[in-house]
Amino acid sequence: MLNLDELLQGVLESLETDVAPNVSDRKAKAQLYACLDLLGNLAVKVDWKAQILRDECDGIRSALTRAAQLIAAASPKRRVLSEVSAAIAALPSSDARQGSDETVDWFARRRRYAQVFEDLVRAVGDNSPGSEGAEPHGVYDELRECVHEHLVNQTIRDAFYLKPMRLSEMSKG
Amino acid sequence: MREALATFLASKMPQADDISVGAVTRHTEGFSLQTFSFDVSWREGSSAHQRRLVVRREPPAGLLEPYDLEPQFLALQAIADSPVRFPRVLWYEADPAVLSAPFYVMEWVAGEVPIPALDAHGRPPFPDEQQRLSVGRDFCRILADIHNVDARAADLEFLDMPRDARQAAQRAVDVWEGYTERARLGPMPMMTEALCWLRNNLPPEGDVCLVHGDYRTGNFIVRDDRIAAFLDWEMVHLGDPMEDLAWAMSKIWRGESPRAGYLLDPNDFTAWYQEAGGAKVDQDRLHFYEVLSGVKMASIMLTGVKAWHDGRTRDMRMAIFDQQVPGMYAAIAGSLGLIQL
Question: Is residue B114 part of a domain?
């Protein structure tokens, strides 16, 4: 996910340099400049909705907490899992009471959580039965289930916000 | 650009006098290579000639970077005598001084390029049933023709012939993992999950053939209810024929439609492809390449986002993938059986 300010600056630049010079209708051009004016002012005031980022953090945190419990209970030998456990323990709490939406950088926190979750995904995926050095330990099945559960939940969350891509218009112009 | 093209064509057509290049039209259908068409007229002795040509040029940055047009140009030259329908390529120019970036010139093929999405009015491509079936038949036949090219006889070994389908699959995973990692701007757990799955589920040995690599609705020209030419050979390589089938059938290219590429029921597609002389369809291999298709498309999108983020392109069509890539993660989750699409 890109920084919102970066995206909005790109929109402004494209409208200003690629679109505006090619709009000949005066009313359309007037509307375009009104949009540019409005977007320019909004760009410095808005950011991603904290609620969306916080929900994702909560989802990852919950999956990681479960994973840490499974790893602690089963004590598998692979060092990578103890490293993941340590990384989970070092994460800040996603509890909103730890800071208001204004004081917590949810964007950065989401990134940190997601990185530890990705490390867990890789540690579990690399231990698939039949793969080199695989540890025959039932905990991997439970960890895999835990990973899949979060991936599914996050996919559903993302799908809720996703608008259909305007491929046809973007292709045909 | 007109003047540069005229100078270039004069160097390639020594028999031609008074070469004149008409207005150059920029096409927007492709998100990757830049495409321009133009009319060129010239004299040869006392006779006057005119022809429409197309330039395909490397973009400064984009979805499939780093770009190298030469392998696809050579591959298309090598199969020029095959029954495969594609615009014949004429010249390749590697020197960026000529037209700002390497490019090749190919013949113009008239017709329409149907896009695999609903149009602005919510209409799907191929609304006419007769056209849909006719184009669908060609879609199967041309794919079988591509897969039946004798790669050794056509001197395609410069594309680095894999030992077998297992090695081809291994290479495909390496290639797309490479794209994914080069495009990394942050954590990508779904990609990691899919790549681990692919490495753990490589298909067994099997035959390899010429693979288009981007065989789908959106990459062919329709004229008179037939496919006049197949385009966009940027990902051509030697590999498993199931890679093209899985890509063509992927949910990525069909929206809510049950039909592969809005064209054919998946069972009809595989049956007609085999009837046309295509490879035997293997469901397990197909599943492997279905998962790879999601990974491939997501890494293409991520590559576009990275190029935009780095400031190497200001094309907003690259930036939109930042918001659209979760749709691809959903396709991957569906192919892995984690969710029902």
Answer: no
**CATH number of residue B233's parent domain:** 3.90.1200.10
Tell me: cis bond preceding B71? Omega within 30 of 0 counts.
no
DSSP-assigned letters across all residues of B123-160? PPS--SHHHHHHHHHHHHHHHHHHHTS-TTTTT-GGGT
Q: Are residues B206 and B284 in the same domain?
A: yes
Q: Tell me which residue range forms the domain holding B55.
A: 2-107
Cβ–Cβ below 8 Å for A155 and B116: no
> Cβ separation of B28 and A168 shorter than 8 Å?
no
Cβ-contact B203, B99 below 8 angstroms: no
CA dihedral A92, A93, A98, A100 (to 10 degrees): 90
Out of A7, A114, A122, whose CB is closest to B322? A7
CB B8 within 8 A of CB B98: yes
ipTM of the complex: 0.91
The answer, for B319 touching chain A at a CB cutoff of 8 Å, is yes
Minimum-distance CB partner of A155 among B117, B188, B339: B339
**Which residues of chain B are within 8 Å of residue A121 when distances are taken between CB atoms?**
189, 192-193, 196
Q: Are residues B212 and B86 in the same domain?
A: no
Would you say residue B125 lies in a domain?
no
In Å, how far are A166, B124, B125 from B121, measured between CA atoms? 11, 9, 11
Is B20 inside a domain boundary? Answer: yes
Which of the listed residues B58, B76, B107 is the one where a domain comes to its end? B107
Question: pLDDT tens per residue, chain B (341 residues)?
Answer: 899 999 999 999 999 999 999 999 998 877 889 999 999 999 999 999 999 999 999 998 889 888 899 999 999 999 999 999 999 999 999 999 999 999 999 999 999 999 999 888 889 999 999 999 999 999 999 999 999 999 999 999 899 999 999 999 999 999 999 999 999 999 999 999 999 999 999 999 999 999 999 999 999 999 999 999 999 999 999 999 999 999 999 999 998 899 999 999 999 999 999 999 999 999 999 999 999 999 999 999 999 999 999 999 889 999 999 999 999 999 999 999 999 88
* B202 in A contact zone (CB under 8 Å): no
Residue B38 lies in a domain: yes
Q: Using CA coordinates, name the residue in chain B closest to A13.
A: B314
B52, B73, B107 — which closes off a domain? B107
Count of Cβ atoms closer than 10 Å to residue B135 Cβ: 23
Any B CB within 8 A of A145 CB: no
